[in-house]
Amino acid sequence: MTPARRRAIFRRLQEANPHPTTELLNDSPFELLVAVMLSAHTTDKSVNAATGKLFPVANTPAAIVKLGVEGVKPYIKTVGLYNTKAQNLIGLAQQIVDEHGGEVPNNREDLEALPGVGRKTASIILNMVFGQNEIAVDTHIFRVANRTGLAPGKTPREVEDGLVATTPKEYIKDAHHWLLLHGRYVCVARLPACPRCIIADLCEYPDKTPAKKLEKSDAPVVRKVGPRPHTETRVPGEGEPTPRSRGANRKGRGVGKSASARATAAGGIRRAANAGGKAGAKSTAGGARKRKPRPVGKLI
To answer: What total number of domains does the chain contain?
Structure first.
């Protein structure tokens, strides 16, 4: 892939979602670390349901340690492999208290030494909390990087190294979130929503989904319910609404997709509609009248 095409891909993803962030609800570096650790082999929705109950009771390393393994388990039963993760959570919290003064460590070596924390989790913390140019490669990013040609690789580490080496400097900080959300909501595993994709003409994937098969795709960008709100937050910081407090304002912490993800999907739909000359496309942005949510299974 040429540098110009690579830059164009990230430019479009940025235009569709200028301030991407995680869908894991959190209000502190420790909460984010816990949520990311719990998210392995499970959905963000399940993690948010668990942490929405756990964090009001215990959201610091010392408080988690005080609960103990058996005390933590009832709160995280919605999370896959919760027995193992309960043990890791207590071990992680205890190690942070004993070796790091109760603060989340700011380097990869110490992060990866924590129970339940691997390279991907460490990369997310280094990127989001400490502002380092790290790209954590999960299954979605691995798929998107290989399909598009951004960074082909046989292993997550190969893909990570390729993305870090080739992503334009001005985009690398948010590249993780753009690629993850694109893989989660548009470039899905079974049948990607290529006709609705905002980077389809730049993507080098040879087996793009034809328009006639689009309705069979299970990508949320194809089947969407309700209005699409604008982007509300970015990476948590002082004076800004954070993902978890934002969720609380919306009457509950575990409340489906984040605004950033929906903004990415909405941007993709609007761009695809404009490019294809589709008539009758309507948006709820800018004070347009609200429409009744469409039932699941219907194309937008």
So the answer is: 1
